[in-house]
Amino acid sequence: xxxxxxxxxxxxxxxxxxxxxxxxxxxxxxxxxxxxxxxxxxxxxxxxxxxxxxxxxxxxxxxxxxxxxxxxxxxxxxxxxxxxxxxxxxxxxxxxxxxxxxxxxxxxxxxxxxxxxxxxxxxxxxxxxxxxxxxxxxxxxxxxxxxxxxxxxxxxxxxxxxxxxxxxxxxxxxxxxxxxxxxxxxxxxxxxxxxxxxxxxxxxxxxxxxxxxxxxxxxxxxxxxxxxxxxxxxxxxxxxxxxxxxxxxxxxxxxxxxxxxxxxxxxxxxxxxxxxxxxxxxxxxxxxxxxxxxxxxxxxxxxxxxxxxxxxxxxxxxxxxxxxxxxxxxxxxxxxxxxxxxxxxxxxxxxxxxxxxxxxxxxxxxxxxxxxxxxxxxxxxxxxxxxxxxxxxxxxxxxxxxxxxxxxxxxxxxxxxxxxxxxxxxxxxxxxxxxxxxxxxxxxxxxxxxxxxxxxxxxxxxxxxxxxxxxxxxxxxxxxxxxxxxxxxxxxxxxxxxxxxxxxxxxxxxxxxxxxxxxxxxxxxxxxxxxxxxxxxxxxxxx
Amino acid sequence: xxxxxxxxxxxxxxxxxxxxxxxxxxxxxxxxxxxxxxxxxxxxxxxxxxxxxxxxxxxxxxxxxxxxxxxxxxxxxxxxxxxxxxxxxxxxxxxxxxxxxxxxxxxxxxxxxxxxxxxxxxxxxxxxxxxxxxxxxxxxxxxxxxxxxxxxxxxxxxxxxxxxxxxxxxxxxxxxxxxxxxxxxxxxxxxxxxxxxxxxxxxxxxxxxxxxxxxxxxxxxxxxxxxxxxxxxxxxxxxxxxxxxxxxxxxxxxxxxxxxxxxxxxxxxxxxxxxxxxxxxxxxxxxxxxxxxxxxxxxxxxxxxxxxxxxxxxxxxxxxxxxxxxxxxxxxxxxxxxxxxxxxxxxxxxxxxxxxxxxxxxxxxxxxxxxxxxxxxxxxxxxxxxxxxxxxxxxxxxxxxxxxxxxxxxxxxxxxxxxxxxxxxxxxxxxxxxxxxxxxxxxxxxxxxxxxxxxxxxxxxxxxxxxxxxxxxxxxxxxxxxxxxxxxxxxxxxxxxxxxxxxxxxxxxxxxxxxxxxxxxxxxxxxxxxxxxxxxxxxxxxx
Lengths: 543, 543
Hints:
- Two copies of one chain form a homodimer.
- Chain A is α/β, with parallel strands linked by helices and 543 residues long.
- Chain A is 32% helix and 25% strand.
- In chain A, strands 2-1-11-10-12-13-14-15-16 form a nine-stranded mixed beta sheet, sandwiched between helices. An eight-stranded mixed beta sheet of chain A has the order 7-6-5-3-4-8-9-19, sandwiched between helices. In chain A, strands 17, 18, 20, 21 and 22 form a five-stranded antiparallel beta sheet that branches.
């Protein structure tokens, strides 16, 4: 009917840097410790990386792995590897040798970049993984024997041909990265993200956050998770200066914000809490901060109050997942401002995950796929140009997760009358106790409303009478506002829950801790690890 | 290699309204005179329009025409016709019966909506155009015999089935609208815009303008041009209130801004000038205005000064064309602010068309397709998800215009070192005088720098000696700051040009007028009309 042509240039991952280098060539791009590169320099370095991929023997479409803390080189891999037609596999450095070898074999990684801390690991992986031909060393230390040095590789490639232009010729549906899901459940799956997926997410972030050229970003979350690079492409597209920290350290974050006049940062609630405590110990001038984004969990009213008291800045929550590259919903600064002022419906919305950003659709669906009315709990289904291509070499899992363009997230939630989503639980984390469904997040939310509780995890444990019984692990501060938090009576917390929850939801057992709960790279509590000892030798339907 | 699936839900034109109705159902959506509809009401009305398309006998993929001033119904056609799988053909009501019949035949329009002012025209068109089966009347007047009344159609369709949901199932590459180019050259061509093209443009506008929910838009430019609807989808996506004016009238614009507390409006420079004059006659409170966008031509420094003196608001320039749906480049409020303060390079940039918005690439190319360095004049090539599918049933023209995903605009321009584009001319408007290339826009810019000149058109006229000679038409105010503008001496203007331009560029003849120059629907000066009398009986390579 239309007689259209086939070009359809939706863009590829070379576009953000191409624009920044053209418009803001002389301005600061990425800042990593003492290293500061402009957008012109960055473009030439990334061009060098593109040329080096030939030398490394990675064919177009081949996989390049990264196993490293955040750094300039790490960010360059995101900006360069897909732009030059290869696929980036950014690996969680918290995994074991066994787990990493499985992922490298699964995606047949041909070249792997590792930093100083992971030299031995690199040698061990090369021995085990037949696909792994080249090891590239990034970092300040000496380049190990038999490895290639990242900076030398770039310099050589840049020399001939010098300053390669960005290729800029990938189809938007071409595979750009394989991002393995956190491993909170079962065998890890490789999420296939296309150029278009990651560009779509960058656009959604540009719209939701209103990125501007004069923003100054601080990148803290690890780049092996898509949440850690979510703002990299958006900030590059508008040519912002971006400071990279190798890892989260509260005092280093405070110092970086003060020194670099940072305006925007992503800080999950736990990090935000630690930053506020660090500032109590050692004050710093954080007045440049305009926008703090968080994800992974809603913020507690107490933490929000402390944050707004300390910073004169906007707070925004994002919810998403690797499969959606990742942004799905957004609780806006306006929501936070009016919620903090106690204004309804904004006050209630602060317990939500926000509403879908323009460009993404999210619906609450029943098990039969029908959309549910407001207030009813169902599964979150997501649709948009940011939804993954599928799972790498897992057609079964892909088929189960994608239906008519919708991604079935496995998250249980309900929507209010204005389209704001309220997370209830991971479907697999739902506890069935005496025939009643208990959503662990609801119990966790009640617990963290207590001033002494920093974080909480609730799950089912085997129970002869109830099938599963509600069990809670609550983290309290070593020294809390109410005295020695380590000694908050368990009975007081149970009573606190009883005032807020139906009887069948109140924990039957509760364990207090003062150290933080184990978390995935994305900051999600690893409930599986907490749950495992209770289920040793038994079987649960979903682990 | 990737094993990806085929869903790829980039979205369709139902998405903006779907989100607004879900999140902002009870809030003001479109306001048209006395009519004010909320997003819930709008969604139901548009659902009714979708159902009515069946009754009108327009098959999926069939063409629905509109020939009307801006109105609620007109906006609903944009929101509903493509969302329900039909193709919208929005026609320029300034065209003659002959011209319109040609377009209706060319795109085989099956149903046509017309307003009160175009009843006779509708009957005449039905007689002439075999494809035209249904005529639909929109407006306050009586519905003519043999026509269908828009509101009755909607009410009937809404009754059964009531409140249709939006279909939401179009592929992003499906044809959404055919928009005929202004007819400034030759036989009009139907630009085929897909759902994805118009959504991409909405996203680009969201990013560039930073649209927010609490914006209040005034829609003035005619909706038959894509510039007139460019912000409709963006503003709907974030759920802004939008006021529709049937046509430009300076006093009506001032009154609407004051009454509705308008924050955002598109006003081409001529409109802005007329608005400022109207305010001199009859003051109004326009303090709500935060952002004025213009297009079609750079603003003169004098007009910018007057505007900034009057409004405490941001100015932003956009450049684009129907084929790119339309936004390509953007001169930001920051550019204007710093340019008005006389700061380089911003001061110079105010003469530019701005730089490509994130998501669109524009390059200056030589005739052989090679990208040219900064400062060299070539053709503007544009690439992005906003670039049209092609020209309707014109494979020859499509092939000439689209190359490897790039659209060749036919505009001659150069870029500065920061990627800002400076329009030099339409290639076809370039004057070849004595073997030298004279870009008419350069001469026009020099003329409008004279305080007495409101607008100017420069073109070549036949000359026995030079081949073509540079001829200028300059419009001066009936009463200008320098006295009776109608009597600014021609010699003074020629001298003014001589101080600014090389000798071969200075007009050899100059005509003064006090009435505005003829313009297309998009506000472009119809140079062809001005040029025609000079070339009567002669042939020019490009007309």
